[in-house]
Amino acid sequence: MGEDRIRNLIFDFGGVIIDIDFQRTINAFIKLGAENFEENYSKANQSGIFDELDKGKVSQKEFVDSLKPLLPSTVGDEDIINAWNKIIIGVPEKRIRLLESLRKNYHTFLLSNTNIIHYNLYMPDIKRSYGYALMEDLFEGVYLSFRLGMRKPNREIFDFIFNSQNLEKQETLFIDDSIHIIDAARSYGIRSFWLKDGMDVCDLFENGKLNPGLL
Question: Exactly one of 12, 79, 176, 177 is catalytic; which is it?
Answer without folding.
Answer: 12
